[in-house]
């Protein structure tokens, strides 16, 4: 064997590989992703990081939450990616105006299946009473959800003070005449109080009825069942509903307004990022059952967003490999 020749050949191959990798990173550039402060969004951010790094991008995660991330993207064009932006919180008109002006772009209009807000009951409650699928049916049975202080009344768990859902739930409580039908509207005080009420009821086998949203760890862990609130009664009615019972004189029963959640991309990334990255975001849709299983695993293992992303990439290749080309999938797997 000609050792000098072999060394030169391997050196040339290594140099070519390094040049290719460097070129890919240079083409992609540095990408910033919002690592938002709830479990599903942080998990998604770390998955995006791993996938983009598999494309040769240099990726930095930056701390974020809905309003600060939205404001920064709108005014400064950064971060480049917000994996799970709840549009209803931002305001659909504001976001749509920013998109129309070209300040940001919708990378995926529905990155998660089965998400939304509404009223839910514990699964064993519905299993024992299969007719409890609609809000009318549940409201007709206050005896199944007795208030601790006044068992003659049914107890509905509302939202913490300061949350938009508190006002909406107040209005819908009023719209359905629940007080007159023997119900009390409860206030959990805090997010922890809301979660605690679900955990306590579930662990003690007690019936629970109240507000929650998806995707969330608690909803997945305790398998809460949605209550059909009926058809959406129109924007004009909902604009009144969100004002709260004290400021909405005549709210009508209604299904919850559709929850818009988008993956948002900065103008710079949408125009100058690699085509395959834009294609990835457009294809990246998490099945409801898969995301719920990840959130439960994360909670049970006290996992970080990074831990959860690694678990997902290692165990759900049938889901994520459909979002990327085979060569990118191979790079991601090699990095694991």
UniProtKB/TrEMBL annotation:
Pfam families registered for this protein in UniProt: OpuAC
GO CC term, one of those recorded: ATP-binding cassette (ABC) transporter complex
Domain ABC-type glycine betaine transport system substrate-binding, chain residue ranges per copy: 30-315
InterPro entries the record matches: ABC_Gly_betaine_transp_sub-bd
GO molecular function, one term: transmembrane transporter activity
Protein name in UniProt: ABC-type glycine betaine transport system substrate-binding domain-containing protein
Originating organism: marine metagenome
Lineage: unclassified sequences, metagenomes, ecological metagenomes
